Amino acid sequence: MRKAQTKLRHLQNLLNATLCDNAFNENNSQLAIHRHVVNHQQTISTTDSGAQAIACGNKHMDIRKIALRGWLLLCCFTAHAASEVTIAQRFSHQSKILNTTLSYQVYLPESYHSDKKAHFPVVYLLDGEAHFTHAVGMLESLHSGMWPQVPEMIVVGVSNENRMANYTPTKATQLPNGESAPAPYKQTGQGPDFLRYLENELVPVIDDVFRTQAPNILVGHSFGGIMALSALAQTHRFSGLVALDPSLWYDYPRLNDQLIASLSQPVTRPVALFVAAADMPITPSLGRSTVHRDYIVAFNDRLNAHKTDNTELAIESQGVFYPGTNHHDIYHWGFYDAMKWLFDGYRINFGYQTINAEAVIADYAAMNKRLGANLKPSLPYLKRAVAKLSRDKALNENPDEVRKLIHHFYSK
User: Fold this and answer.
1) What is the domain range of residue 379?
2) 136 touches 107 (CB < 8 A)
3) Among 72, 103, 266, 277, which is disulfide-ready with 296 (CB 3.0 to 4.6 Å)?
């Protein structure tokens, strides 16, 4: 960095000496030089005044020097190199089920590289190209600090190759207003094949290449939301399902009835289902209409009242309405709340309440049963907690309670 700054000063001095050499005709348009300081790096930009020659000391700029100045400017712009911040890798593979090439991107958490023995839950994002960085940022935020609310997780952004085909569980021929569906709807109804692709091709690849552990969480928004709901009955690898403002207006009431019926089917795995409804007064083909919102709210009412007869493995569910939100910003509020709800029990409230090791262990057991997982607080985190509680007596916490957690989760 110091060498780059020295080079910049040298080039600037040379530039000033060169540009203040000779005069040129005042009828010619001229270029004014402005110096800016951006992030402590000196840069140079140019503007065209187009009217008068600019004085440089007592002399005018020689037009013959403009070419040289352009070269110097290029040197100044490249005097210090920028480094990229990479948060993911992009992959592609051939799907035999869909008979096409599909791409996806993978984010690995920080501890993935520092702890070679650690395994991580996986969040699969439908419409990954639209929501990937946003979701990764929220997950990093939820895990950070002294009170992480979720574990570190791998994130897989599933790219949207053919949304109308792959994100529609049924074939629709009619719009909500009763009119015949337009030409793009002819390819609808391939959603079950796409779920089979996730279940039988993508998830096995991720599990084979990366160090993963339960749970797998599937997140979908809009059309992706109805796919997440459909995954309840059509997949077995996802124990966390998040549907953000799902498009329940699509093929209503047939699809809606199918999804409601799936809530009463015997479950073969632990499932936690979160559905977020935005306050959206617009419905496709109906214009200003609350049909879209009302269908989700009604579905959530059924969801929240649902009781399963299966006492061994239950569907835990949560339906939430978000006043004042729209179809797009619901992703932020819904995703954030869904992650906190799914991993309720993960956070250890040092300082907020007196820590009791037995209560923490019970919270983790309930969370793991809900998600079909075997999660535990990370050992480095627990060791830091012991050090802090031993050092900060004002918190009035007993570090021995944390030592009990270390013994329970890691003594084996």
Assistant:
1) 357-410
2) yes
3) 277
Residue-wise burial string across 172-194, b where 16 or more C-beta atoms lie within 10 A, e elsewhere: beebbeeeebeeebeebbbbeeb
- Tokens 């949304």 correspond to 163
Instruction: State whether 36 and 173 are in the same domain.
Output: no
- Specify the range with the lowest mean pLDDT, choosing from 51-60, 147-156, 347-356, 378-387: 51-60
Each residue of 119-137: pLDDT tens digit?
A: 999 999 999 999 999 999 9
The tokens 């419409």 sit on which residue? Answer: 127
CB 242 within 8 A of CB 228: yes
Q: Whole-prediction pTM value?
A: 0.80
pLDDT tens digits along 39-88:
333 333 333 333 333 334 444 444 444 445 555 555 555 555 677 778 89
